[in-house]
Amino acid sequence: MLIKFTGGTVYDPMNGVNGEVRDIYAKDGRIVAAPQPGTKIDAEYSLSGRVVMAGAIDPHSHIGGGKVTIGRMLLPEDHMGHEVARTDLTRSGCGHAVPSTMTTGYRYAEMGYTAAFEPAMLPANARQAHLEMGDTPMIDKGAFVMLGNDDFFLRSLAEKKDFSFIKDYIAWTMHASQALAVKIVNPGGISAFKFNQRQMDLDEKHVHYGFTPREIILTLARGLKELGVPHPIHIHGCNLGTPGSLHSTLATIRGSEGLPIHLTHIQFHSYGTEGDMKFSSGAPQIAELVNQYKNVSIDIGQIMFGQTCTASGDSMRQYGNTKSANPKKWVVMDIECDNGCGVVPMKYRDKSYVNALQWAIGLELFLLVNDPWRIFLTTDHPNGAPFYYYPHLIRLLMDRTFRNEMLEKLHPQAQAATILKSLDREYSLYEIAIMTRAGPAKSLGLRDRGHLGTGAIADITVYADDTDREAMFKTPLFVFKAGEQIVRNGRVVKVVSGATHVARPEYDRAIEKPLREYFDRYHTVKLDNFRLSDQEIVESNCGHTGGECGCVIVQPCGPRI
Amino acid sequence: MSTLNFKLRQAPVATVDLSALIPAKLAGLSTGDIEELPLGALKVADLFDVSGTLGDAIVISGGSPLLDYVGAGLDGGSITVEGPVGAYAGRGMRSGRLDIRGDAGAYLASNARGGIIHVTGSAGSFAGGARPGDKFGMLGGTVVVEGDVGERAGERMRRGTIIARGKFGAAAGSRMVGGTLWTETGFGPRPGPLLRRGTLIGPKVDDMLPTFADCGRVDPVVLRILSRSVAQTLGALAPKALPIIVHKFAGDQATIGKGEILLTG
Hints:
Chain A is of the alpha/beta class. Chain A has one domain: TIM Barrel, CATH 3.20.20.140. Chain A is globular. The two termini of chain A are 31 Å apart. Chain A contains 20 helices and 26 strands. By secondary structure, chain B is mainly beta. In chain B, 10% of the residues lie in helices and 34% in strands. A 13-stranded mixed sheet of chain B has the order 5-1-6-8-9-10-11-12-14-16-20-19-18. The chains are: A alpha/beta, B mainly beta.
């Protein structure tokens, strides 16, 4: 079936198309070159005056795995008043900060997103995470597996095992847990927490194993680079949310030795200790260094005011945050001695100095980092805000007047402590398209996503060119997934499953021998049961590659594009 | 006083949230506007014939156990229901008066902060109780139930009074933090599990928990004050004044034990 999208204003940064009026053709789920004149067009959409972009990609959103479920169980009040009734097409659900899986999928699609990636999947929780993501319809999914706090890795590092041994272990874990990339959360800190350390800086030694977070980060960054995993090591650094975290973040960037690294929700790691309140913005220093180090990419983790629920693997820092829990209840737990988990409900208030400044720091970072290819738009759903605040965030970035109006409502001292008012930058649609489509796709190694060139999957979002950018990005006119119309006027019109993206670097299977011994001795499950097979996360061996029926897509490993 | 009437045309087939039908939310709307108000998937006009003029009083003629949240959030004015209601009636009510001429469902007056609720029939479980996610149950106000009350009345209740002419079901006053449960007939089995503070008053108890300590017969002054205050608030609805001397049990000793069960019989 040949579909023609006629006359839309196209923003496709991967192919350098900046607001040109173009026709796009899609056949059998993929974008194709213009056919011979006279070829029969099966369907045509006239998009004159409309803005056309590839489907948006969220590179960091907690949509699956144990902690989201804990958040749902912890917060019945998050469900009440946020019920979503079933319709003929969609199923019922509920939730504001931690919506149910189905609702998550529908809301993403209704906002023009066609992919979202779960950034903190514990190997021991991979099965749960994939089952939950399998229940998240409409969008493509994938997960980053957490390493760097698990005992096997730390032991290997402490025993000074051969580097290839550690590389094999990384690759084995990615295979076993069906991951697309590797994330490290508070390097060594979650493990150190269990040895009663309550804080751990970049060069502070783990009391038991004796090495520093710096060594862990470099080992993993180098390992992933040598394995050819497309996405660089996804780092949730030391000292999340503490005043002064700025310094460990700067040190992490400086110490990256040219290895590709991605610093996630960097807003939470950009706090200084200046001023009367001993809490200040470190955004200018961080942005300066990010601009300078081209091997670094970041996503922001912007906060928005209102009720949400923070969910992180970082049990050390989340334990520290429990005193700010609102409502006053929280869960911090160990999971299978593998990693940690901390769920703390949070209400960000614009009248609070700290919260207001956090909001401003996120925006400062957005506006001060020059290269949109290395900065991605996230709220670290649900930690900064639920993901469906993105349209509001986009308006804040694109509309200086609106931004300054919002700024004036904040805590007066916070207004004085931020340079936000002096930042005139306004993002263009082209830059937004980079930040929400091309950039994440490139970083994650999704070669046929995030752009509209020939051969790409026909994941297309069409917006009305509204001057109110919030309204524009909130209700896309059409969303197409693999050439099929799934959303019209911001409502789901067809339910699809979405695929799971994984990366499978080569490794030496001999690693299974010591691993099997380790599992037999320490784990609650056997190695063979730990491993997650394809059949568990897909419905059939269909041979599809476009995610037509919720299948697995293996992204090629190799040198970065 | 002008009255707005909602006449139920036919019993609903699924639960309906009626929290929109309180005077404060309807103020300034014409009858036509009110008929168009959404009630979940339905509109007001799908269920009710609307007549009369809006003032302080609302009358709902005909009831159903599927009408939830009747009078929820009521702050001033009165609502009278000629029939039974479903769950969460009077939830979060702040002031005013809710009259239910029939039975009420579960979670009657949960999270209510003030006002008077009168139920001529019986009330369901968790009357004055905390819903999952709530910190506390009832936080103030007075509830009078002519019939019996279901299980676990006053769950996590903090303040206020629930008076029943009939009997309270099992585990009345569970995890209660404050407030008063008062029955003229008696308590069901094991009242007051994990009762922290708060007062349970009644002529008899079916089965006393072993974690309540017998304190003998006492004559607290507060009983006279309570009887007088309730008589003042409720007028003709008030129960018979309490005797001077009651038999006190203190508990629940499994927690801080500052609560009491006072037997008047």
